[in-house]
Known about the structure:
Layout: E1 5-9, E2 27-31, H1 33-40, E3 47-50, H2 57-65, E4 70-72, H3 82-92, E5 97-101, H4 108-123, E6 127-131, E7 135-140, E8 143-147, E9 153-158, E10 162-169, E11 178-181, E12 196-200, E13 206-211
Amino acid sequence: MTGNRVLIFAGGRLDPGMLREVRSDDVLIGADRGALFLVEHGMKPHLAVGDFDSVSAEELALIQNNSLELLACDPIDKDLTDTELAFDLAVRRNPAEIVLTGVIGTRLDHTLANLHMLLRAAEQGITCAIWDEYNYVTLCGSVCRVEDRGYTYVSLLPLTPEVTGITLDGFMYPLHNATLRIGQSLAVSNQLAAPVGTVHVAEGWLLVIQSRD
């Protein structure tokens, strides 16, 4: 399995509209119920992975019959979430980009763990985003472009204890050489003032969250 971009569909909140973002050369990985979502919408995952404890025996058979490869693991004897298993398998293929969807849901612990995967990808030089109907989340550690994707707000939150040298261009509320520390909400609910904004960071890792209600 090779590909320049890997899309991971996990078992959180899933939006059928995300299927319009799938390119013909994308590698599709379904994590647990995310694999069922793909199959039920006429897509054939390149890989279905997980303990599949959230699907029935009939649904698992449907996944297996409509996936190019299935990797099932014991729901008890495992150390990683299904999403992280999928993420690790995606990283092994050394793609240029990984997109995660269905990774935000009712479980805050899972959501936070999935946000941390953005840092793991960045440390390996892989562009990574969390993308769904309400959020588009990336990570900035130097300079990044923020394109207008139709979301209302752009919020900046530090993923490291402190992020320094933050400068914003093309935003309604600019910052110049600012510092953000965990627990501060100074940069929440900003907005783009141009089709593309730029975020500069001197040191640290900054979550860039485009969102709408």
